[in-house]
């Protein structure tokens, strides 16, 4: 039976979503095309009706996953983001978690195309976070952006470092607890510094 254009688009989107989850769980090299298509409910041969190569799927799945992270971040202020991000739930839910924390190490060894998707996704995430952190009277947007980049880098690093330890180890939990407290303290300190720089009554 002939597949309609609409159905083909839905199939493609399902393959991309499945790939995004599996790549977050196992890394780009941890799952092959045949296994990925089987997980999505399709045959291996059907892959090339949708994608020219695995690299193309990797780029599209990365973009999709990064967009999901930004969407889940909307409405969260930086402190709320840190509480959710630097957590055991996020660390243990790798397949449903942030693409940045799951695949940044892999992306660093991939093509410019995938690195470009990561750069765009990280920039979008920073934009979402900045929209929630802007305060009336904030004049130094450069300083605010620098604070958010620092916060995001420390949050991602904390999750990656915790995941590198054995599951359930005391050190894995200690890394999250220490880093979460430190990041939240730095956010409070950073906002205080900005308020002092603006002066009283500003």
From TrEMBL:
<dbReference type="InterPro" id="IPR009057">
    <property type="entry name" value="Homeodomain-like_sf"/>
</dbReference>
<dbReference type="GO" id="GO:0003677">
    <property type="term" value="F:DNA binding"/>
</dbReference>
<keyword id="KW-0238">DNA-binding</keyword>
<keyword id="KW-0805">Transcription regulation</keyword>
<dbReference type="InterPro" id="IPR001647">
    <property type="entry name" value="HTH_TetR"/>
</dbReference>
<feature type="DNA-binding region" description="H-T-H motif">
    <location>
        <begin position="32"/>
        <end position="51"/>
    </location>
</feature>
<dbReference type="InterPro" id="IPR036271">
    <property type="entry name" value="Tet_transcr_reg_TetR-rel_C_sf"/>
</dbReference>
<keyword id="KW-0804">Transcription</keyword>
<protein>
    <submittedName>
        <fullName>TetR family transcriptional regulator</fullName>
    </submittedName>
</protein>
<feature type="domain" description="HTH tetR-type">
    <location>
        <begin position="9"/>
        <end position="69"/>
    </location>
</feature>
<dbReference type="Pfam" id="PF00440">
    <property type="entry name" value="TetR_N"/>
</dbReference>
